[in-house]
């Protein structure tokens, strides 16, 4: 049998090698599922409920995956496999649904949800972002996906609270050129308390008149805003190292002292999967 010049192995030998690798991968998958079951059992013994989503842990695993990735296999493929694996193992112990923002294109929301949460999780379309907030708040451990748009149809983030739904993640987490499932979105979930050590803190801010100033000059990103006859509502993102008093001062220094400012969540900073590229899209804010 002829040998392939690049490897020195025959085609049959290479196929045998692939079969052996597949067997090791499958054994490792089963081992990981057993370990995940042990983690969930330990959580249950400690009085914690089963949960599909652990944003800090997920972010750490994704960072490690990006750092060790090499070779020709696309990073987005590895990311999808990894996320599907994580969610499939966790959903064996957690009965969780993901509520989808009905104000966005359904096919895009489905693609996003399947990419990040796999095919073993129940997906529930909602009427709009406010309904997603309500569904997550009323549930025990459900998640919500809300499409992130510069100008919102309603200030849905007013329904976020420390005791209810909060912003827990921002998607896409790994930023890649021409990636699949690239719809900008926020993941909503309930938590026992606000995540204090998130890279990015998220705030609900309100003004009774037109929003003045240049918030980006103070390192504040306007994730989304809603303008009405009574003023402007905005969902803001800023470094999680700052206190609420610091954030209020930053708004004031930008000429935009808010009437209302309250924290409604936080998330891990996105990872640049294309190091030679810069992450664009953080300089959007309403222009007067």
TrEMBL record:
Entry keyword Isomerase: yes
Region (Disordered): 266-288
Chain ranges of the Chorismate mutase domain: 5-97
Keywords: Isomerase
Keyword Isomerase belongs to the record: yes
Compositional bias per record (Acidic residues), positions renumbered to this chain: 273-288
SUPFAM superfamilies associated with the record: Chorismate mutase II
EC code: 5.4.99.5
Pfam families referenced in this protein's UniProt entry, alphabetically: CM_2 (PF01817)
GO molecular function, a single term: chorismate mutase activity
PROSITE patterns: CHORISMATE_MUT_2
Superkingdom to which the source organism belongs: Bacteria
The protein, known as: chorismate mutase
Origin species: Roseibium sediminicola
């Amino acid at each position: 049998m002829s040998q392939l010049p690049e490897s020195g192995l025959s085609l049959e030998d290479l196929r045998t090698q692939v079969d052996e690798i597949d067997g090791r991968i499958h054994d490792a998958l089963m081992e990981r599922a057993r370990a995940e079951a042990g983690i969930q059992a330990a959580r249950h013994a400690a009085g914690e409920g089963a949960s599909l989503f652990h944003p800090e842990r997920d972010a750490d695993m994704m960072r490690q995956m990006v750092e060790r990735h090499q070779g020709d296999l696309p990073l987005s493929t590895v990311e999808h496999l990894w996320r599907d694996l994580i969610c499939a193992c966790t959903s064996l112990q957690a009965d969780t649904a993901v509520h989808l923002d009905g104000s966005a294109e359904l096919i895009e929301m489905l693609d996003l949800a399947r990419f990040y949460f796999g095919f073993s999780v129940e997906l529930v379309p909602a009427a709009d972002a406010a309904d997603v907030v309500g569904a997550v708040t009323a549930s025990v451990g459900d998640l919500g996906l809300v499409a992130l748009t510069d100008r919102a149809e309603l200030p849905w983030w007013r329904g976020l609270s420390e005791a209810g739904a909060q912003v827990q993640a921002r998607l896409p987490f790994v930023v890649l050129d021409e990636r699949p499932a690239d719809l900008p979105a926020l993941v909503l979930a309930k938590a026992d308390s606000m995540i204090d050590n998130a890279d990015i803190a998220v705030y609900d801010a309100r003004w009774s008149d037109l929003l003045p100033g240049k918030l980006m000059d103070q390192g504040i990103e306007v994730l989304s805003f809603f303008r009405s006859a009574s003023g402007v509502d905005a969902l803001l993102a800023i470094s999680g190292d700052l206190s609420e008093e610091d954030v209020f001062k930053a708004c004031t220094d930008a000429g935009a002292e808010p009437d209302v400012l309250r924290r409604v969540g936080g998330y891990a900073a996105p990872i640049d999967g294309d190091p030679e590229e810069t992450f664009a899209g953080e300089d959007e804010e309403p222009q007067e």
